[in-house]
Amino acid sequence: MRKPCCEKKETNKGAWSKVEDQKLTDYVLQHGEGCWRSLPQAAGNFGEDEEDLIIKLHALLGNRWTLIAGRLPGRTDKEVKNHWNIHIKRKLLLMGIDPNSRRSLLSPTPTCNPNPATAATSLLDLNLDLTIAPPPNQS
């Protein structure tokens, strides 16, 4: 007998919040009904704020997924790594940003000795002033 998908460590088994209800409703309206076991993985459930934090932490820590996931409550290193590789890298590429170097893919690359002053202009302006706060109270 296989275990239900909700028997994962740190999974909220209580009542759903209004935000979670809306995410589920939106997902079913967009993708239709299907297999409940695959829903969480297919829906993704990463918010824009989480993606921004992952990008900033990746710029600081590289591929240290365990350290990055440690700053995202309820996320595993595998979830974060998969989300980075499947969604965030593609998103950055579509924005014209190299996900590994965070340099613009649109600016020309120097052919001889690069000038540090001009090289700095091609870097993505990342604010790495990271803060950690408890989640907001849910009513």
Automatic annotation (TrEMBL):
This is Transcription factor MYB3. It holds the Pfam family Myb_DNA-binding. CDD domains: SANT. Residues 44-92 form the HTH myb-type domain. It is found in: Nucleus. InterPro entries: Homeodomain-like_sf, Myb_dom, Myb_TF_plants, SANT/Myb. GO terms for molecular function: transcription cis-regulatory region binding.
